[in-house]
Amino acid sequence: MVELGTGVFLLWLLSTCVRGTCVGDGRNITCRHSLQKRSLLFSEKTACYRDLGCFSSGPPFYHPVYRPLSVPPQPPEVVQTTFLLYTRRNRNRPVFMTRRNAKKTPFDPSALTRIIIHGFNDNQALTSWFQRLKDVILDRADENVLIVDWSGSNRLPYTVAVANSRLVGAQIAHFITYLYKTVGTSPESFHLIGHSLGAHIAGYAGERLHKLGRISGLDPAGPFFRNVPEIVRLDPSDAVFVDVIHSNPAPSVLRGFGSNEDSGDLDFFPGGGNPPGCEQTFARSLVEDLPTEALGNLVACQHLRSYEFFIYSFNPNGCLFVGVECNSWPDFLSGHCNCGHEGEKCAIMGMFSPTYAHPTGKHYRDRRMYLKVGPERPFCVHQYQVVMHIHSFPGHYLTYGLDSADVDITVYGKLEKMKGRLHI
């Protein structure tokens, strides 16, 4: 389906490249190539930034239909990416970590490092999920938590934010490489957790590092990332293990903000990609959350639900988000899928995905997992598959001439019972 606002670019035909000019200040260089696209004056530009490399706005980052507006990222001094370090020693007072002070911070190179990356039009003043996720991570283990703040360059126009995401990914990769070389950590010990555009930022970082430990993509952004090569978006090759939660997948921005394409080793679709409860969430958010978060839940509740699921996957009450491999959501609801004889067809959504991802030692890749979720926090529900076998004994036959029947079933649990009617 053609994205909103791209119809004018359908005039694009074959391209031929002619001449170009470059300007720079010794550190950063921007080149403009006059491209006769036989279209509406698309002009490919290349921006080069010291230590980070060059970024072209041309293919594959340009496409006449799916990425019709493409520009190179803004300079680092405009993007102003910062790294805020939290540990158990400074869980409420972040340290602004840079290459200059890395050795003087509480950063522990022997511990795992979780890097939280926000998406479009998001920052710590608007939403609290950064801090909530940081807190549950540190409650569980003494690890390094880095919050990547690029909120100075993630607003409208969306095209510029998309371009800047490439630069932020490169900056993260460069920073991890620096830590590896100076304090003795390794890319395998890093886990990047990105929401929306942040998921693709994590992919750009992983692409440069090759052996990044893990990426968790929380409803990766859809606009400008659908129907494009893997180098443009998050994909399974970006880390040793990539798990993705699709809470608002859609084929176009008119129907949702997330991508409906598989992006990881395990792609989870809670509620079939249409989780329930957003009406209740908005009402609760008005009371419990920041006003800006309540507004976000009104506009993009399901898109934001992905990080809620990830935060509540730490739930200490013993409930796990169990995803079941299945061809489709209707097949899942019809009971056509289960965990298999050894649990090999099930995996846990959220923080503990790697723990349960390989029950038989087999590597999962490109698998769709479906699960039910509740409408309210903590969202996790226990799923049961009840199989009832109905048969007649030899010599006994149903002679009532009925083509179908309704069977009333009552399932008894420790706390309550549930009644239902089965049509057979």
From TrEMBL:
CDD domains on file: Pancreat_lipase_like (cd00707)
Q: Name one GO molecular function term.
A: metal ion binding
Catalytic residues at S196, D219, H303
Positions contributing to Ca(2+) binding: E230, R233, D235, D238
> Which subcellular locations apply to this protein?
Secreted
GO BP annotations listed: lipid catabolic process
Record keywords, A-Z:
Calcium, Disulfide bond, Metal-binding, Secreted, Signal
Name the family the entry cites: Belongs to the AB hydrolase superfamily. Lipase family.
The protein here is known as: Lipase domain-containing protein
